[in-house]
Specification:
- This protein is α/β, with parallel strands linked by helices.
- It has one domain (16-190): Uracil-DNA glycosylase-like domain (Uracil-DNA Glycosylase, subunit E, 3-Layer(aba) Sandwich), CATH 3.40.470.10.
- The chain has helices spanning 41-44, 52-63, 101-117, 128-138, 168-171, 178-191; strands spanning 22-23, 29-33, 84-88, 122-126, 151-153, 159-163.
- The chain is globular.
Length: 196
């Protein structure tokens, strides 16, 4: 994306900037998405911030009691996450939102390090790409078919939960509704020991 800028944004300087994870460093819930949106997280510097996917996700986290506000428009907007860390499998906006295997593998150490550092008990994979990557990292075999609400119990007592990605393609068509996301998040929060 940084090499072939859209003409309407050719003068912007944020292209190609990697985006780190964000949230509560004591998070028991880790949410993993695909990659930063070129004009969302890549522009604002915070994952899922400044785009419609983030609007959907942070509103749902707020309804679940995991965020202090329902919106995320900039890195300094006062958003605070409680018991949640949000990250992306790929740290820079990939062309056509389809990361190449080498892009995925170049970014993999960042996600691995976050998974090692956080005391997570549940990881929520947003979309098939995140699910495939996280299942591979966790050694899930056999791997259940991806679907919204699919849960995988891990041998160490933790779990992997699947969700459709909150992309416009899914939310505008009704494939993922606020009610579906709320139901999944409520189940995750209620099943956490000492839930918020």
């Amino acid at each position: 994306m940084a090499r072939e800028k859209r003409a309407s944004f050719a003068d912007e300087t944020y292209w190609g900037r990697p985006v780190p994870g964000f949230g509560d460093p004591e998070a028991r819930i880790l949410i993993v998405g695909l990659a930063p949106a070129a004009h969302g997280a890549n522009r604002t510097g915070r994952v899922f911030t400044g785009d419609r996917s983030g609007d959907f996700l942070f509103a749902a986290l707020h309804r679940a009691g995991l965020a202090n506000q329902p919106t995320s428009v900039s890195a300094d907007d006062g958003l605070i996450l409680t018991d949640v860390w949000v990250a992306a499998a790929v740290r820079c906006a990939p062309p056509a939102n389809k990361p190449l295997p080498e892009e995925r593998d170049n970014c993999l150490p960042y996600l691995v390090r976050e998974m090692e550092m956080l005391p997570w008990e549940t990881v929520i994979a947003l979309g098939q790409f995140a699910y495939d990557l996280v299942a591979r990292l966790l050694g899930v075999r056999p791997k259940p078919k991806f679907g919204h609400g699919v849960e995988v119990d891990l041998p160490d007592g933790r779990r992997l939960v699947c969700s459709f990605h909150p992309s416009q393609q899914n939310t505008f068509t009704g494939k993922l509704t606020p009610e579906m996301m709320d139901e999944m998040l409520d189940a995750v929060v209620q099943e956490q020991p000492g839930s918020v």
